[in-house]
Design brief:
Elements: H1 20-56, H2 65-102, H3 120-185, H4 198-211, H5 213-231, H6 238-271, H7 273-276, E1 288-292, E2 298-302, E3 307-309, H8 313-322, H9 331-345, H10 353-362, E4 371-373, H11 374-391, H12 399-414, E5 421-423, H13 424-434, H14 439-448, E6 457-458, H15 459-475, H16 488-495, E7 503-504, H17 506-514, H18 521-532, E8 536-537, E9 549-550, E10 553-556, E11 563-565, H19 566-571, E12 585-588, H20 594-608, H21 612-617, E13 640-643, H22 653-664, E14 688-689
Parallel strand pairs: 12-14
Antiparallel strand pairs: 1-2, 2-3, 3-13, 4-5, 6-7, 8-9, 10-11, 10-12
Helix pairs in contact: 1-2, 1-3, 2-3, 3-5, 3-6, 4-6, 5-6, 9-18, 10-11, 11-12, 13-14, 13-15, 14-17, 15-16
C-alpha cells in the first residue's frame, strides 16, 4: 500500500515572480504532464472500483469442502490479478507524489464568479489540488481492496479448515454411532433375561452409557462447528445439513433407547430382583438361611439347631450387646447409647440427611400416610446404601447385610406383628432419627412431613409424628421412662407454645423441642452421645483415675477439682474412702474453654456458700416434664421363634412363618425384664449439661441444662438441680 500526504507544505515563491509569458509557456507544459497523470489515476480508480465490485460478488462462501476449494482457487486467480497490477499503481502514485512536490498548493480552493477568467497561477494550483484528490482516492481504494482480498483469503482458509474438521468428525461419529447401534441391536429382550443377571445387565448398560460420553462430546463438537460457521456467515450445504440432522436424530434415538432399556431393567430389578430378595440371601452365612414368608417378610432358618426366628443373626447378637448397657442408671442416656450402637451397626451414622432426603424423593416417598410393603422398603433401603457406597468409597459397605439389618430393625419398631406393611411416615421417622445430621435439621424435616402447604400442622398430625417417634424407645423397652405411649399430653404441651391457635408453625415446634420434652429427650441426648465419642478432656477422673477423660465429662459445681468420667457417673460407680459427689453437676461433651473453666469456678465458689435448703427451694430439671400415666408395658420387640420339635424343618417352614406373629405375642419380650424403667437414685440430686449449650436461666426460663437421669422417671425433689 501507499501512503500519500493529504497536504504538502512545499511552496514555490518563484511562481509569483515569473513574467506572464513564461507562465503561459510553463502552463502548457504543466497541462500536458498533469493531463496524462490525471488520466492514469482515473483509469486506476475505475479499475479498483470494478475489482471491488467483483470481489463483493464472490460472497457468500460455500458450505462444503468442494465449493470452498473452488472459491479459493478462483480467489487466488483474482488476487494474482490484483497483485500484478500493483507495480503500475505504485508507479503512478509515486509520479503523483513527485508532481505534487514540484507543484505544491497551499491556498484553499476558491469559487470564482461566473465570467471571471482564472489566472495561470490559479490553474496550476487547481490542477495540483485535483491530482492530490485523485491520488488519495486511488491510495484508499488500493488499501481497501488489498485488505479485503487478504481478509477474504483468511476467511476461506478458516472456513475450509472448519469444514474439513466437520467432515472428518461427522465420518468418525457416523462410525461410532454405527458400532453403538450394533450393540443396541444385539440386546436381548428384558423379559428373556434371568432375574439373577438383571443387576449385571443394569451395570453393563450404565457402563455402555458412560462409554458413549465421547460420542456425546463428538456430537456437541460437530454442532459447535456448524454454529461457528453460521456465525461467520457460512451455511452448510444441503447435503451437509441433511447429514448433520441425520446424525443428531440417530444420537437422540440411541440415547432414548439406552434410557428405555435402563428403565426396563431397573423396573424389572425392582419388581423381581428385590421382590424375590435374592441379593439379600448373602446377608447370612451357613448354617443360617434367609427365607421369605408369603407377605414378603424375611425370616431366618438355623439348619444346625433346626429353628426359625424373625431376627437376623447379627441383630440377635446386637441385642445381646445392648444388654451390657443396662447398668447405666439414667434412662435417657441408656436409651441414647443403645440407639447409638444400633445406629452404628446399621451404618446409619454414615448416612447424611441430604442423601436420605434425595433417596426419599427418588423413590417418591412423599405421602406420609401411604403404606409401604416390604418390597418397597427393600428398594428404598437399597437406594440409601448404594448412595452411601458412592459417597463413602473409602468405606466398605456390605449392602445386603445393611439392608437386611435395617429392614429387621424397622420391622421390629413399626411392624412387630410382621404384617409386611409400614407407613411412609414410620419409615422416614425411623431412618431420619438415626441418620447423621444435626438434631435441629432432623426436627425441621420431621415437622415438614406432617405440615400442610402453609407450613402449619394441627394436633392430629403432630400426634402422628410423636407417636412414630416414641415407638423407637418403646422397642427398647424404655417407653415408660419417656411418658409412655400416650403422646397426647406431649401434643398439648407443644401447643402451649401457640396459645389459642389450632395449628403451630415450625418455629413453635423447634422452640418446644429445644426444651427437650420428656417424650423425645432421648433424641437430643443421642446427638450429644455421638459428639462426645471423639471428645478428650484434659482432666483426671475422681473415681477411676482415667486421664484424659474420654466421652462425657462431669464436673461438680459444689466441690473444687472434682471431675468424673462418663462410665463412673452413668453407672453410679463410687470409691471407698472418698467423699461422695455433690450436686449440681456440669456435663461437658466437648473440651472446655478457659472461659468455661472460669465460669465454673465462679459458680462453684457461689454454691459453696449455699445450703441444701436453697437447692431444694430452687428445683430445676434439664428437660420439659410432661404429665402422663407411666406405662410399664413390655416392648414389642419380637423374640426368636421356639425350636422346632421335629426334624423335618423344611416341610413346615411356611407354616411357622405364617404363625410367627401369633407366637411372639405368647412369648416374653427380649427387653421386658432387662430394660425396665429406672428406680430413683437415692443419692442423686441433679445434673446439668454444658459446653456450647449451657445458658443462664432464672425462674421458669428453659436453659441448656439436662437432668442426666432424664427426670423421665419419677423424679423426687432430691433429683432436681439448679443453675444460678
Amino acid at each position: 500500500s501507499l501512503s500519500l500526504p493529504l497536504s504538502l507544505s512545499l511552496s514555490s515563491p518563484s511562481l509569483s515572480l515569473c513574467p506572464p509569458l513564461y507562465l503561459w509557456v510553463r502552463l502548457e507544459a504543466f497541462s500536458d504532464n498533469s493531463g496524462k497523470l490525471q488520466l492514469s489515476l482515473q483509469e486506476i480508480i475505475d479499475w479498483l472500483t470494478a475489482k471491488d465490485e467483483e470481489l463483493s460478488e464472490q460472497l457468500p462462501i460455500g458450505g462444503d469442502v468442494g465449493a470452498v476449494q473452488h472459491q479459493r482457487e478462483f480467489h487466488q486467480v483474482f488476487m494474482e490479478d490484483v497483485k500484478s497490477r500493483g507495480p503500475f499503481i505504485y508507479s503512478v502514485l509515486e509520479s503523483a507524489q513527485a508532481f505534487l512536490t514540484q507543484h505544491p498548493f497551499q491556498e484553499p480552493e476558491e469559487t470564482l464568479p461566473d465570467g471571471k477568467e482564472v489566472s495561470p497561477r490559479k490553474r496550476i494550483l487547481n490542477v495540483s489540488r485535483s491530482v492530490w484528490k485523485q491520488a488519495n482516492v486511488t491510495s484508499d481504494l488500493w488499501e481497501k481492496l488489498t485488505a479485503r482480498c487478504v481478509d477474504r483469503h483468511r476467511h476461506m482458509e478458516r472456513t475450509l479448515e472448519r469444514l474439513l474438521q466437520t467432515q472428518a468428525a461427522m465420518e468418525e461419529l457416523a462410525m461410532a454411532l454405527e458400532q453403538a447401534e450394533g450393540v443396541r441391536d444385539a440386546w436381548e429382550p428384558v423379559g428373556d433375561l434371568f432375574i439373577d443377571s438383571l443387576q449385571d445387565h443394569i451395570d453393563a448398560t450404565k457402563l455402555f452409557k458412560e462409554e458413549l460420553t465421547q460420542v456425546k462430546e463428538g456430537m456437541k463438537h460437530i454442532n459447535d462447528l456448524a454454529h461457528e460457521l453460521a456465525i461467520s456467515d457460512v451455511h452448510l450445504s444441503m447435503e451437509n445439513s441433511r447429514s448433520l440432522e441425520h446424525l443428531n436424530s440417530r444420537w437422540k434415538l440411541l440415547q432414548a433407547s439406552i434410557e428405555e432399556r435402563l428403565k426396563q431393567l431397573q423396573d424389572a430389578h425392582r419388581d423381581f430382583g428385590p421382590g424375590s430378595q435374592h441379593f439379600l440371601s448373602s446377608s447370612v452365612q451357613i448354617p443360617w438361611e434367609r427365607a421369605v414368608s408369603p407377605n414378603k417378610v424375611p425370616y431366618y432358618i438355623n439348619h444346625q439347631t433346626q429353628t426359625t426366628c424373625w431376627d437376623h443373626p447379627k441383630m440377635t447378637e446386637l441385642y445381646q450387646v445392648l444388654a451390657d448397657l443396662n447398668n447405666i442408671k439414667f434412662s435417657a442416656y441408656r436409651t441414647a447409647m443403645k440407639l447409638r450402637r444400633v445406629q452404628k451397626a446399621l451404618r446409619l451414622d454414615l448416612l447424611r440427611l441430604v442423601s436420605v432426603v434425595d433417596v426419599f424423593r427418588e423413590q417418591d416417598l412423599q405421602h406420609g400416610e401411604h403404606v409401604m410393603d416390604v418390597v418397597e422398603m427393600i428398594h428404598a433401603l437399597t437406594g440409601l446404601y448404594e448412595r452411601l457406597e458412592e459417597e463413602r468409597r473409602a468405606i466398605v459397605v456390605n449392602i445386603p447385610l445393611c439392608v437386611d439389618m435395617c429392614l429387621n430393625w424397622l420391622l421390629n419398631v413399626y411392624d412387630s406383628g410382621r404384617n409386611g406393611k409400614m407407613r411412609v411416615l414410620s419409615f422416614k421417622t425411623g431412618l431420619v432419627s438415626l441418620c447423621n445430621a444435626d438434631v435441629q435439621e432432623k426436627y425441621k424435616y420431621l415437622f415438614r412431613q406432617v405440615s400442610g402447604p402453609g407450613g402449619l400442622t394441627d394436633q392430629r398430625y403432630l400426634t402422628m409424628l410423636l407417636y412414630e417417634a416414641i415407638q423407637i424407645p418403646r422397642q427398647l423397652g424404655e417407653v415408660a421412662a419417656f411418658g409412655g405411649s400416650n403422646v397426647e399430653p406431649s401434643v398439648r404441651s407443644c401447643f402451649r407454645m401457640a396459645p389459642g391457635k389450632p395449628a403451630i408453625e415450625v418455629s413453635h415446634f423447634l422452640e418446644w423441642m429445644s426444651l427437650e420434652p420428656q417424650s423425645v429427650v432421648w433424641l437430643a441426648v443421642l446427638q450429644r452421645v455421638a459428639v462426645a465419642e471423639s471428645a478428650k478432656h484434659q482432666a483426671k477422673c475422681y473415681i477411676c483415675k482415667q486421664c484424659p477423660i474420654k466421652g462425657f465429662r462431669y464436673r461438680s459445681l459444689k466441690q473444687f477439682n472434682v471431675d468424673i468420667c462418663q462410665t463412673c457417673f452413668l453407672t453410679g460407680r463410687t470409691t471407698k474412702g472418698k467423699k461422695q459427689l455433690q450436686y449440681p453437676i456440669m456435663e461437658y461433651y466437648t473440651p472446655t474453654t478457659s472461659g468455661e473453666k472460669m465460669r465454673d469456678f465462679a459458680k462453684t465458689l457461689k454454691n459453696k456458700f449455699r445450703s441444701k435448703q436453697y437447692f431444694s427451694k430452687h428445683p430445676q430439671r434439664g428437660y420439659l416434664p410432661v404429665q402422663s400415666v407411666l406405662e410399664a408395658e413390655s416392648s414389642d420387640t419380637p423374640c426368636s421363634s421356639p425350636k422346632l420339635p421335629h426334624a423335618d424343618t423344611h416341610s413346615r417352614i411356611e407354616h411357622f412363618a405364617s404363625r410367627l406373629a401369633e407366637m411372639e405375642n405368647q412369648n416374653c419380650s427380649f427387653f421386658t425384664d432387662s430394660l425396665s424403667p429406672d428406680e430413683s437414685l437415692p443419692n442423686t440430686k441433679g445434673c446439668c449439661t454444658g459446653s456450647q449449650r449451657l445458658a443462664e436461666r432464672k425462674g421458669g426460663e428453659r436453659g441448656s441444662s439436662f437432668d442426666v437421669n432424664g427426670g423421665v422417671n419419677k423424679v423426687s425433689p432430691s433429683l432436681r438441680n439448679h443453675i444460678n
